[in-house]
Amino acid sequence: MKHLLYIAASIRCKLLFFAVSLLLSLPAWSQLPTAQQVAGQMQVGWNLGNTLDAICGENAWGNPTTTQALINSVKTAGFNTVRIPCAWDCHTSNGVIDATWIARVKTVVDYCINNNMYVIINIHWDGGWLENNCTTSAQSSVNAKQQNYWTQIANYFKNYNEHLLFASANEPAVSDATGMSVLLSYHQTFINAVRATGGNNSTRSLIIQGPSTSIDNTYNLMNTMPTDPTPNRLMMEVHYYAPWQFCGLTADASWGSMFYYWGNGYHSTTQTDRNSTWGEESEVERALGLMKTKFVDNGIPVIIGEYGAIKRSNPADLSLHLASRAYFNKYVTSSAKSKGMVPVYWDNGASDFGIFNRSTAAVSDQAVVNAIMQGAGGTTASYVTLANRATGLLIDGMGNTTNGVNCSQWSNSGSYNQQWTLETAGSYVKLKNRSTGLYLDGMGRNTNGSIAGQWASSSSNNQQWTMESAGGYVKFKNRATGLYLDGLGSTGNGSDLGQWSSGSSYNQQWTTATIANARAAVSASSQTVIPISTGKETSQATISPNPSSSSFNLQINDKEKVLLIEIFDMTGRLVEAIKPGSVNNRFEFGASLLPNAYIVKITGSKGIKSFKIIKQ
Length: 616
Hints:
Elements: H1 2-25, H2 35-41, E1 45-47, H3 68-77, E2 81-84, E3 92-93, E4 96-97, H4 99-113, E5 118-122, H5 139-156, E6 164-167, H6 177-196, E7 206-209, H7 215-221, E8 234-240, H8 244-247, H9 281-294, E9 302-307, H10 318-338, E10 342-345, H11 366-377, E11 384-388, E12 394-396, E13 408-410, E14 420-425, E15 428-433, E16 439-441, E17 453-455, E18 465-470, E19 473-478, E20 484-486, E21 498-500, E22 510-514, E23 528-533, E24 538-544, E25 552-556, E26 562-568, E27 574-578, E28 587-589, E29 596-604, E30 607-615
Helix pairs in contact: 5-6, 7-9, 9-10, 10-11
């Protein structure tokens, strides 16, 4: 009897072991967050436009192959969401999506996931098989394709968590109730296909598009939502390009002329026929307000899947045009965020909309990036990240808080260890790590290949660096060692940050990006007092207000002659220079500066002094 009981117990143990092993081998499905929770984490987004949506191939429309370095740069600039427009129809054979193509889409998705970003993939224009066929005659065949493609896409990406979102279409052409009914059937097919694949797709957030992604059409025609078996997992998508004469029109038309200048305070007094005559701030508020009322207030998040304004090359006042374009992007971003929406900027990789150089991964339009981040966060960043041009790695404090520890490099992580404040020390800067509180230090090492370290704040020249411009990049030269910060060609996470004598190597070139939503570290008195040595005595220069949303006032309290005031952005580029008159005058400057942090250098007859200002 005991023997039989032993055999029975042994069988039960084996069955239990088999059951546990089976459970451990299954994918770890989970209940993903609601659409409202996900949208709440999607701060501001960027489109990888005219790339994976090109017909037929990633490079077909002139953009280079997407790299991890590009997505790193997008993240560093402050974006945490990437919309990846995708083509599928021309990458199929007998209805089956090409394995190499879907694997390539996955690779780009993973570039974003590696950076802890949110990712949207869709079926974009794709030759117009859906977008141009929201008709009853095409309804059956389009629904068949929609069912087929989304079943394959959803199964392929089933294991991804809430950071990946699916979007049914792009800009489905609909302008009446009949078309709206057909479009709803396409969205219903999309939802049914995704949910049927199970796993994480059962609770994944899905995005459906309004008719033509027009705000007015969506408000007037979309009076019902498709049915989703999983509650609170749908988002609405619309696009914003109003007025089109400013945002996209490239030649005067019979119905309207191109606008070059948009917004209050940005109209031209000499080229008045190119000022916007409609569609300015009040239109932004009206249109986005409709989406808030109809969807956001009813628990349905809204994605502004595309917005932006074309950069023109022929305005009579180019600087005013560029300023008004930056203002447009800032205003739309701010309005969308204030209404609980997720704005996703349209970037096609070209000079008209592009804000990143797709080949080098560098920011190519810092003014628009600054404007978007200002609109998204409402505060000016006080931290920067520094990415090496050659390695793509960021300078990282590695959490080491002991004096003398090495400074390292790491791929973009969003960690405070990769965030630095720039403090001025005369005509030099000091770099303080946000996490460790230590300063980047040359450590007195003056041999090529020597390692840069970290040390608590001191007056040592080893903690002082000059910022030198190198095209669109910046180089950092140590005051004590005379060597330049160098990535040393090391591409592995945790590799040491080195120093080397001056050269043209990309390893000595760095991109700097401000961190959105960080509070500016400024005096509570809203003014900065800078001691200026004049030999036997020390005088003061007072700058106020700091930060400022308009201009800055600078006043010197003694007889010292100020010869030159120079303002540099965080890449080391000179953006403004003033030759003031009498020393006792109050000098006003900075009215034209875009929101960002800047270094101001005052050259006097007895010395040079630099300090940081914040333009809000």
